Fold this protein.
Amino acid sequence: MIKLLETLVNGINQGSLYAIIALGYSMVYGIAKMLNFAHGDVIMVGGYVAYFAITSYMVNPWLAVVISMIVCAALGMFIERVAYKPLRQATSLAVLITAIGVSYFLQNAAQLLWKTNNRAFPSILNLGNIKLFGGELTLITSKMMVTLISLVIMFALTLFTSKTKIGKAMRAVSEDKGAAELMGINVNMTISVTFAIGSALAAIAGVLYSGVYGVQLTPTLGAMPGIKAFTAAVFGGIGSIPGAMLGGVLLGVIESVVRVYISTDLADAFSFAVLIIMLLIRPAGLLGKKVQEKV
Amino acid sequence: MKKLVAAMLCACLCLGCVSAMAETLTIGVQGPFTGAAALYGAAVRDAAEVAAEEINAKGELQIVLNAQDDEHDREKAVNAYNTMKGAGVQAILGTVTTGPCLAVAPLAAQDHILMLTPSASSPDVLDNDNNTVFQVCFTDPAQGTLSAQYIAENKLAEKVAVIYNIGDAYSTGIYETFMEEAEELGLEVVADPTFTDADTDFSSQVAEVKNAGAELVFLPIYYTPASMILKACHDVDYAPTFFGVDGMDGILTIEGFDVSLAEGVYLLTPFAADAQDEMTVNFVEKYQAKTGILPNQFAADAYDGIYILWNAAKNAGITSETTPQEACDLITEQLLSMTYDGLTGTMTWGESGEVSKTPQAVIIKDGAYVSAQ
C-alpha cells in the first residue's frame, strides 16, 4: 500500500514537470496552430541561463529564475519573428519542419557556446523532507513544491486567458484568426505574447528540471522532456490549459507505475503507447474540444 | 672569439645530426575530448602527453602524438580512426570508451594496425576478429567478479542491491559477473532495478532498493547517472554504502556537482593518486602541473599505455620507416612476452589481448580518493 502511494507521489511529482512544459506547448498550439518542437530546447536554454547566472554571476536563485524567464521570453519572441512569422501563410508541414530546424539550431548553438560536458545544477530548493507512516513514506518537499507551482501556473493562465484583454484576444485569435483581425485585434502582437509566455514557462521548467530533479545540464537536455510534454499535451487535449495539466500528471503517474510494477525499460514505450491509443479513440484528447472543420 | 664561434657551430651541427638521426614512433590517441565522456578522453590525452614529454627528454626513440576526438560516438570514432590512419600512425592508444572501440577495432584488425586501449573494458573489444587489440585496463567481467569478492571479503554488507544501465554493454557485463560471483559467495542481492540512457528520474529505482533494505548499493555504471542516483538517494534520506567500478571515476570532477554527496563511496580502481611510490608521485606532480587537477585512473592507464608501446617499439627496433603493419606484428610479439611494471600494477598479456593485474579499492574522503585499506 505504501509502495503504491510512493509510486503515485513520485509519478505526480514527475508529471507536474511535464505539465509545466505541456502548458507552454499547448498554449502555443492553441493560438498559433503550430507545433513548436523547439519548445524543449528553450527549456535547455532556460536551464543554462539560470546556471550561469547563479554560478558565474552569483545571482540569487530566485532572481536567476526571473532572468532566465526574461531571456527565454525574448528568445521565444525572436524565434517566432524570425522563423515562424514569415511562414504564417505557408502549409503546416513547412512550419513543422522549420520548428524541427530551430530545435536543432538551438541544440548545436548550445554545444558551440557552452560545450558538451555535463554541468550539475546547484540545488535551489532545499526544504528537507516530510516523513509519513513512521518514516516509511518520504515526501520530498522540493518536488511537492513543483506540483504546487504547476497548479498555480495553471490557474494563473486560466485566469489570464479569461479575464484580461490580451488573454481574451488570444482566445479570439485561437478561434478565428481572420475574424479576430477584422475586430481590430493585433494578431501578430498576440502571437508574440503567446510565445513569450510559453517560453517563460519553459524557462521555469528548465530551472526546476535541473535544480530540483537533479538532471545535469547538457545541450540535448530538452529533447526528451519536450517529447514527453508533447505527449502529455496531446493526451490532455492540445490547446486546453487544464488538459495539459491533467495530461502531464497522468503521464507521470503512468510512467511511474509501469516502472515499478511492470518494467523500467518499458516506461517510455508505455507513455508513447498511451499517446497512440489516445489518438485512436479520442483524437481531441481528454479535455480537448472537437472542432468541426467546414469544408 | 673564433674558438667560441667554432664551438657553437660545432654544437649546432651536432644537435642537427642528433635530431636528424633520432627515430620517431607516431602514436595515434583517440578518445572523447568533448561530449558526455569528455573527462575520460581529456585525461587520456593529457596523460599521454605527459608520458611522451618524459620519453622524448630521454633522447632515445622519440614519440609523436596524433590526437583525434571521437566524442564517444561510433560514427565519429570511425572518422577519427580514418584521419589517424591517413596520417600514418604506427600504433593507436585508444579508444577510450567501449562503444567507439567496438566500431573501430574491426577496422584496425582489417588494416592490421595495433590498438592498445587504455580503458575500453568490454570483453567484446577483444573479440576473435579484433586480433590487433590489447587492453591496459581489466575487462568488465573481471571488475564484476572482483567487486563481489571485495564486498564479501571485507564484509561491507549482507544485503546488496544493484542499479545498472540495461542499455549499456559495459554496465550489463559487470552486472552479470557480479551476480554470478555474489551467488557463489553468499551475498544476498535484494533488488536489481535498471535504467536506460534516456532516464533522468531515478526516484523509483531508489525507492525499490531502499524498500528492499539494501545496506550497500553496487553501481556498475558511469559517473553521470551515478551522480544523479547519489542525489536521488540523498533526497529521500537514504544513505547506504555505495560501491562503484572504474566508470565511477570522474564523479568528483563534474562541474557544479556537490562532492559531499559522494563522501564514503567505494570504487574499484587500479590506480590511487595518493599512493606514495616514486612513480605515482612523479606522475601526479607532472600531470597536476599540466592540467591543474589530480589524475584519475584513465590518465594512469594512458600514461602506462604510452610507456608500454614505447618499450615494445624500442625493444623491437621500430624506426620511423616501420610501416604500421610491420609495427603491429613487432609490438604484438613484444607484448605477449613482456611484463610491464607501471602505475596501475604489474601487467602481462594473453593471446586474446586481455591484461592481468590486480585492482585496489579506494574510498572517497573529503572530495579525494584514499586507499580503502
